[in-house]
Design brief:
Elements: E1 7-9, H1 16-30, H2 38-46, E2 56-60, E3 66-73, E4 82-90, H3 99-118, E5 124-131, H4 135-143, E6 147-158, H5 161-165, E7 174-178, H6 181-194, H7 207-214, E8 225-229, E9 235-242, H8 245-251, E10 255-263, H9 272-286, E11 291-297, H10 304-310, E12 314-325, H11 330-337, E13 364-367, H12 391-394, E14 402-406
Parallel strand pairs: 4-5, 4-14, 10-11, 13-14
Antiparallel strand pairs: 1-2, 2-3, 3-4, 5-12, 6-11, 6-12, 7-8, 8-9, 9-10
């Protein structure tokens, strides 16, 4: 079956079950470490980052089977470049027929229309993630004009009896603050000031996007916390955790996915991040979780990788985050050309080792066209899409969950 033999249309909430089934079939083959249920998909499709008319596409057979799908996620700002995240997946039974390429080309065209409507005149870059061992995903991105942007690492840590019994120690002068509606906006502001500046491509969380993030079915407020500096009263750091039931259905394990962990710069090197991780591991152990996972940019300037390794997290998968600078319309090309800077291709740090993913992307997000990812409330952001997203820490989905494209 060729792309021209399929019926192409935008996805709706009624397609959530079909999308989840296609994603599960792909995960069983790709082992990206990330699964989504129909409810997770429905939330993604209803989110403000997805244009209801152009932000998604499904390719259906004549008898109604979903052969492939893709989502493209808009960001909350163009600063000055609008970085959209692509997520996509081709069902294993329909791969190697050019469908992945067709889906990618459709969504790249849609991204240009969506970006111009949301941020008129702003330069556009589209990001996607590929598992570094998935040659088909890598080939897809390279054949459609993407270049390497950076690498995301998916990490995993088993949770044991020691985590359940050990009482987490907090740094002197700091107090633990459980997540609640009362402190939600304070933690949002902390996220914008502590996380976003050190994570290239991240944009500020608006009140709307934050509400969507902390009201998803996967978000665990009882495993999410802030740490307040007692002398100043300032929220020094925070951690947000999610749990995906679909992951448990796939693996048999309950995983606490660390969606975001951030510390304000003036409170770094005080043990804030380490303390928050210990608190999460303790709470997750008491809740009966089997593992904890997360995603991290291999070049994160905050030293997060070392913090996670010190806390016992091990590399499970590595995702290549690709980017493509989209051509600008002639009518606004000249005013924006000075701001369009293509990132320098980065070299893979092989000293980190091969990363695995508890996936995004959870996986640091693969969108099916090649690698699978998920922007899903950035479940992981990620990796959202065609590649990773991870978004996990990408703000779109997990990078753990990243965004993937499997083809």
């Amino acid at each position: 079956m060729r792309p021209m033999d399929l019926v192409w249309r935008a996805l709706t909430g009624d397609d959530a079950q079909a999308v989840a089934a296609t994603a599960s079939a792909a995960e069983a083959v790709d082992d990206q470490g990330e699964s989504y249920g129909a409810a997770d998909i429905a939330e993604m499709l209803a989110g403000s980052s997805i244009d209801p008319d152009r932000g998604s596409v499904g390719a259906f057979t004549a008898d109604g089977q979903l052969a492939a799908f893709s989502l493209v996620f808009a960001r909350t700002a163009a600063d000055p470049v609008h970085e959209m995240h692509l997520l996509g997946l081709v069902h294993p039974d329909f791969r190697r027929r050019g469908i992945g390429t067709a889906v990618t080309e459709r969504m790249l065209a849609a991204a240009q229309v969506i970006s111009e409507a949301r941020f008129p005149g702003a330069p556009l870059t589209v990001l996607g993630a590929a598992f570094d061992q998935a040659s088909d995903q890598i080939a897809l991105f390279e054949s459609t004009g993407f270049g390497v942007d950076h690498y995301e690492i998916a990490m995993l840590r088993p949770i044991g009896d020691a985590d359940r019994t050990a009482v987490p120690r907090l740094p002197a002068g700091y107090a633990l603050v459980p997540f609640s509606p009362r402190v939600s906006q304070e933690i949002r502001i902390t996220h914008n000031e502590a996380f976003v500046p050190d994570h290239p491509g991240s944009t500020v969380a608006t009140e709307q996007s934050w509400a969507e993030r902390v009201q998803t079915l996967s978000f665990r407020d009882d495993l999410s916390f802030g740490l307040r500096h007692e002398a100043s009263g300032q929220m020094a750091g925070y951690v947000l955790v999610s749990y995906y039931a679909a992951d448990t259905e796939m693996t048999g394990l309950r995983d606490a996915y660390v969606q975001y962990l951030g510390t304000r710069r003036e409170h770094r090197r005080q043990g804030v991040g380490t303390a928050l991780l210990r608190v999460v591991l303790h709470a997750a152990a008491q809740d009966g979780m089997d593992t904890a996972s997360l995603g991290v940019n291999a070049e994160n300037p905050s030293g997060a990788l070392g913090t996670y390794q010190h806390a016992g997290f091990k590399v499970r998968r590595t995702f290549i985050i690709y980017h493509k600078v989209m051509a600008l319309s002639p009518r606004f090309y000249l005013p924006c050309v000075l701001f369009t800077v293509r990132r320098v291709k980065r070299t893979h740090n092989h000293g980190i080792g091969h990363s695995g993913r508890p996936f995004p992307a959870k996986r640091t997000h693969n969108h099916g066209i090649g690698h699978s990812g998920r922007p899903f409330p950035a479940k992981r952001t990620h990796n959202h899409g065609i590649g990773h997203s991870g978004v996990g820490h990408s703000g779109v989905g997990r990078v753990g969950r990243v965004g993937r494209f499997s083809a």
